[in-house]
Task: structure prediction
Amino acid sequence: VDSSTVLQDMHGLRVVVSAGPTREYLDPVRFISNPSSGKMGFAVAQEARDRGADVTLVTGPVSLADPAGVKVVRIDSALQLRDAVVGAAEAADIVVMTAAVADYRAAEQSTEKQAKVAGNVTIHLTPNPDILAELGRNKGKRVLVGFAMETHAGVERAAGKAQRKNADFILLNYPTREGTAFGGDDNQVTLVRADGSYEDWPRTTKREVARKLLDEALKVRPAR
Ligand code: CTP
Ligand code: CA
Result:
């Protein structure tokens, strides 16, 4: 038996987790998205559930089945993700944003399929709301955790994001770390705080990363 299934140290806590990609439809049959598998967010939801938390998992389109004992909300777009997360976060103690939110959506979504034309086309995009930043502006006593994937200057950029979005910490990874990140079962992350302090965690399973993430969130909580 896994020790976390015995230790109910999150009993009575409400945890909201976002996972997976968003889809930003251009027309009824085409969208902009990214390769997020949802595995990291699902692992956080399952770990929190096994530790006794009341868990809401808001997920974009992924090929993973609903975890038992978790309230699962399926969404497509960043705007839908925003509404679901902000609503659920109101009563939450901990919010973990693993979702790979598309930064832009179509400025105008066509209701009809767009036929191809000769030559180049231009797509007009408009920024999506920053959900983590919005949660950070109305933080209350909640612990806010973000994720970031960076190709360079990772710690500096992740610390800047934690600061700007008022997140307690961000777990940073790099697309070049093989077997981790998009689609893998393992992850190798660096915990980065707004003050620029950081800890490199060893490569391990996403479930173990989830466990350490929640340990850190529980450590941060009393200071709220
Ligand atoms: N995030 C969010 N809403 C968005 C974009 C990102 O809530 N519209 C969250 C992500 O879920 C993640 C964190 O913010 O937890 C960092 O995401 P990232 O894409 O690295 O941050 P951005 O501010 O979008 O910066 P970048 O320009 O590097 O994409
Ligand atoms: Ca982004």
Notes: The pocket of calcium ion (ligand 2) is lined by residues 103 (CB under 6 Å). The longest helix spans residues 206-220. The domain at 3-102+124-223 is CATH 3.40.50.10300 (Rossmann fold). The mean pLDDT is 94.
